[in-house]
């Protein structure tokens, strides 16, 4: 495992007011995410970083890693699994990892993010737009366009008497937040860690952050997580930190099929699938056996995926594909998938992934009220 210490060192310089525990806790959570929740591995990496860069040498009162581990246990972040005699993280830590991922993505959005869509995430309910239209019975007077209304009234008034008529009234258009059911697909095929690039950690962070956003701010929405490799399976939100890449092929067809079946059971106004992947579909399950082909775009496999995309379109389920690899060879597949579903596709770098997904999620929650 390799780390670029300068990135964390800059963060440490900004947070000199933190306590020794908070400083180490911030770094430890990052290592936990990379280590898929393995406490022992994260502590080994933390020890190596401390030995190489003298992190604890900067603390007063001789606070060391041993004190940090004791405080982790006292605060309820780690505990001992007596059955396996191993140290594990607690529900409190899982929740903290989700919150940290959410804060990290919002921090990146403030820096600019993808820059394609509106990023105002503070509002709930109705949001006023600059566009206006004539008032009609039932419109909320609080959205009145006072300037436009006044100008209309003055057109047929005189200096002695103002004459306000119903036709003078104008109101602002609003965006209304509707309920949304989302299935997030995460590719766990082997290519997610190939070529010296860790693609699974950003994908996990986005899933944890989106989960935390929906749990806290959009409780009426639903989010389901589906991981896929040789097959597709549903993942609990609490299990997100532990996701690992396996020696898997990429069964995109079954992932979309499982997501579609999940959404069939959801009674929501809007249904959507977000798919994070870095590769082409390379296998399907046929007659109970796996048919695979890792070389090129196998027409048999691709057709099965496109058939599933069409089924989703017929059921009014939008598919948004976030391709975190810029291989020109894969663009043809993504284009065909997008056309079949009438959905969207982004070729996003790893640092842009969170911004793209959050902006799309918020945008898809809105419908224009006229």
Mean pLDDT: 82
Q: What is the CATH topology assignment of the largest domain?
A: Rossmann fold
Radius of gyration (CA) equals: 25 Å
- CATH domain class name of the largest domain: Alpha Beta
Which percent range describes the beta-strand content? 15-25%
Give the strand tally: 13
Please indicate the count of domains: 3
CATH homology superfamily name of the largest domain = von Willebrand factor, type A domain
CATH architecture of the largest domain: 3-Layer(aba) Sandwich
Coarse morphology: flat
Strand order of the largest sheet: 7-6-5-8-11-12
Overall helicity? 40-55%
By helix and strand content, what is the structural category? Answer: alpha/beta
Number of helices: 11
Biased composition (Basic and acidic residues): 125-139
Region (Disordered): 117-139
Protein name: VWA domain-containing protein
Domain VWFA: 182-280
């Amino acid at each position: 495992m390799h780390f670029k210490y300068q990135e964390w060192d800059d963060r440490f310089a900004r947070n000199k007011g933190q306590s020794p525990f908070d400083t180490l806790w911030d770094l430890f959570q990052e290592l936990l995410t990379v280590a898929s929740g393995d406490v022992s591995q994260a502590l080994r990496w933390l020890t190596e970083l401390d030995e190489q860069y003298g992190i604890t040498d900067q603390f007063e009162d001789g606070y060391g890693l041993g004190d940090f581990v004791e405080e982790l246990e006292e605060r309820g972040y780690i505990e001992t699994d007596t059955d396996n005699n191993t140290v594990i993280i607690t529900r409190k830590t899982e929740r903290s990892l989700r919150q940290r991922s959410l804060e990290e993505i919002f921090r990146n959005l403030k820096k600019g993010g993808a820059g394609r869509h509106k990023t105002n995430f503070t509002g709930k309910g109705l949001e006023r737009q600059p566009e206006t239209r004539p008032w009609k019975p039932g419109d909320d007077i609080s959205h009145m366009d006072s300037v436009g209304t006044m100008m209309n009234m003055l057109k047929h008034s005189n200096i002695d008497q103002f004459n306000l008529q119903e036709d003078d009234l104008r109101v602002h258009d609003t965006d209304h937040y509707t309920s949304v059911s989302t299935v997030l697909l995460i590719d766990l095929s082997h290519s997610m860690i190939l070529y010296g690039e860790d693609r699974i950690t950003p994908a996990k962070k986005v899933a944890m952050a989106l989960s935390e956003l929906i749990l806290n701010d959009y409780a009426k929405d639903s989010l389901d997580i589906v991981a896929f490799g040789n097959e597709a399976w549903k993942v609990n939100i609490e299990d997100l930190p532990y996701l690992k890449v396996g020696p898997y092929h990429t069964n995109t067809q079954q992932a979309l099929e499982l997501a579609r079946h999940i959404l069939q059971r959801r009674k929501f106004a809007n249904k959507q699938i977000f798919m994070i992947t870095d590769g082409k579909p390379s296998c399907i399950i046929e007659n109970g056996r796996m048919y695979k082909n890792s070389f090129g775009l196998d027409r048999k496999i691709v057709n099965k995926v496109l058939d599933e995309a069409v089924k989703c379109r017929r059921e009014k389920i939008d598919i948004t594909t976030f391709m975190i690899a810029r291989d020109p060879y894969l663009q043809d597949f993504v284009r065909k998938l997008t056309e079949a579903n009438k959905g969207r596709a982004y070729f996003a770098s790893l640092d842009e992934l969170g911004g793209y997904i959050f902006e799309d999620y918020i945008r898809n929650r809105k419908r224009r009220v006229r």
